[in-house]
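All the exercises in this workshop are built on plain-text protein records. There is nothing in a record beyond a sequence line and a structure line. A learned vocabulary of local backbone shapes supplies the integers on the structure line. The question running through the whole workshop is how a given chain folds. Here is such a record, shown just as it appears in the course material:

***
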Amino acid sequence: MDNCIDAPVADRRKHRRSDLYHPIRFKLFSRDLAIPPIDGYLKDISLGGARIALDDPYGQFNRRALEGVRTKLQVTLPESEQLQLLCVVCWVRARGPAKGAEVELGLEFVQMEPWQLERIQHFMALRHTDHTMFWNLWDTYQQATQRQS
């Protein structure tokens, strides 16, 4: 878990990050936590990990309980392919008031296969060529979420 050390950000980055805003689904794997899959969004991604944001309207995320927990990140790529990525939570930050806050998580990818790295590289390259595609996907995601409410 090289990216999980407490060094300054500039010192611990091995891979170039791409900032973006893209919907994801997030699942925790822990015997101590019973949290169903959560929808959120990517804030940035690299070949080594990602930063995601999740709404926490009920204050269910406990920083100490989440750090080091294995997770699965599901990203729907622009070609409608579902990319499943195993991760470890490196850090957790709350934004806003204790309840109703947005929670950011730093994830490190684990057990990556070469084909997964290729998909991430392709995804990062798209970010630089077509911003509209990502916003259209986000709008579709938001509309689907509102219909479920």
